[in-house]
């Protein structure tokens, strides 16, 4: 197996996050000589965090300009690390930072880049990457002859590396810091309990447009829908998904489910999250929606209609029931 450079960047606490540890485990499983390239403020704590991983070298680009995500500095740091390591395969977690900077770095190096890899293997002594195409309907195994080959590995597909910390011998790589035009002046993020998209949650809760439709009593119960859904999300620490019909309604400013945005949309034109379990409510289960459930292992749905899409082999369990009633009862149990 050829030599590997693993590129990782530190988070605001100075350490490596789970996607970086997942990419490290994937790199180690390939078996080639491993160099770790670290980018961030101070590299020693992060290098120490993975000191026991068996990497041959720890190369670092550290300093103030590299604490903030910014194309110019991230690309300059990654390019310098790639040139210093001279590795054939450059592996990195698909963080927003690397996804933005590394395609340009591959171009500068005369190499190639592939994104959204889900796993790596060795075939005939050379690395091969697996990725999905056509909204996760087809899986392909890719190899390339061009080097360096930069591969961005999606988060949540590999177990994270666990091993002993220690004291790593780091080698500083000098970079001429490029002129910068971008300054990060602050971070705006919702409070933790307002965050509805939780990639690490054990359960994906999906709300469909049925929550906003007239119910058997002839009325719409938007306010109660909101209370029931938010109550369940808080109690179950679930991640929230929505059908396209529902997020489109919310986007039009209608007074239903104000916390639902297009980022929550699951499906062909939405996201394909990875969760062990999923519960769909008031959503019909049409194919363009259900393709987004490809990586949800156990699927359950609540729908009034026994002939809805979920009943046609798309869910493991379909509860033919009123989702308002079921969720009221569930929330009571969870409380
Ligand atoms: C090119 C293309 C791309 C698309 N991409 C996507 C995509 O990415 N994601 C996506 O979601 N859709 C996508 N769609 C749209 C998709 O085909 C459906 O129109 C959409 O998923 C329907 O949303 P829904 O099931 O929430 O709403 P509806 O079809 O209106 O279904 C509402 C359901 O709620 C049920 N219901 C109502 N009240 C209750 C109650 N009290 N209890 C239980 N059940 C109740 C009803 O029985 C009904 O089945 C796409 C379509 C196209 C053509």
Structural write-up:
- The chain starts with a strand and ends with a helix.
- It is elongated.
- With 335 residues, the chain is α/β, with parallel strands linked by helices.
- The protein has helices spanning 18-30, 44-49, 71-85, 96-108, 222-236, 244-251, 287-290, 323-334, and strands at residues 4-9, 34-40, 57-62, 89-93, 112-123, 126-133, 138-142, 149-153, 170-172, 203-207, 239-242, 275-281, 296-303, 317-320.
- It contains eight helices and 14 strands.
- The longest helix has 15 residues, at 71-85.
- It folds into two domains: 4-172, 3-Layer(aba) Sandwich (Rossmann fold), CATH 3.40.50; 192-334, TPP-binding domain (Rossmann fold), CATH 3.40.50.
- Helices cover 26% and strands 25% of the residues.
- Flavin-adenine dinucleotide (FAD) is lined by residues 208-210, 213, 215, 243-246, 265-270, 282-284, 286, 288-289, 292, 302-305, 308, 322-324.
- Residues 208-210, 213, 215, 243-246, 265-270, 282-284, 286, 288-289, 292, 302-305, 308, 322-324 line the site of flavin-adenine dinucleotide.
């Amino acid at each position: 197996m050829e030599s590997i450079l693993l590129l990782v960047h530190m988070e605001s606490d100075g350490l490596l996050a789970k996607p970086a540890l997942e990419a490290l485990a994937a790199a180690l499983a390939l078996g080639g000589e491993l160099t770790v390239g670290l980018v961030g403020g101070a590299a020693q704590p992060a290098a120490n965090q993975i000191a026991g991983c068996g990497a041959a070298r720890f190369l670092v680009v550290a300093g103030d300009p590299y604490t903030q995500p910014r194309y110019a500095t991230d690309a300059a740091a990654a390019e310098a690390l790639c040139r210093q390591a001279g590795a054939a395969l450059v592996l990195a977690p698909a963080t927003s930072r690397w996804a933005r900077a590394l395609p340009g770095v591959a171009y500068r190096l005369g190499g190639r880049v592939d994104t959204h890899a889900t796993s790596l293997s060795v075939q005939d002594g050379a690395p091969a990457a697996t990725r999905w195409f056509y909204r996760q309907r087809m899986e392909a195994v890719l190899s390339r002859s061009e080097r360096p080959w930069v591969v961005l590995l999606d988060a949540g597909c590999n177990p994270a590396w666990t091993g002993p910390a220690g004291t790593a011998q780091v080698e500083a790589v000098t970079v001429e810091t490029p002129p910068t035009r971008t300054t990060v002046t602050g971070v705006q993020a919702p409070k933790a309990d307002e965050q509805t998209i939780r990639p690490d949650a054990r359960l994906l809760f999906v709300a469909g447009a049925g929550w906003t439709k007239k119910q058997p009593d002839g009325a719409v119960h938007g306010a109660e829908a909101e209370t029931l859904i938010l109550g369940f999300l808080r109690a179950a620490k679930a991640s929230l998904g929505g059908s396209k019909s529902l997020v489109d309604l919310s986007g039009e400013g209608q007074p239903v489910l104000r916390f639902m945005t297009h980022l929550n949309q699951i499906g062909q034109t939405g996201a394909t999250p990875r969760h062990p379990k999923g519960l769909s409510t008031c959503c019909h289960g049409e194919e363009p929606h259900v393709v987004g459930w490809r990586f949800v292992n156990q699927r359950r749905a609540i729908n009034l209609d026994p002939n809805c899409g979920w009943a046609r082999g798309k869910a493991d369990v379909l509860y033919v029931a009123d989702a308002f009633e079921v969720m009221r009862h569930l929330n009571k149990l969870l409380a």
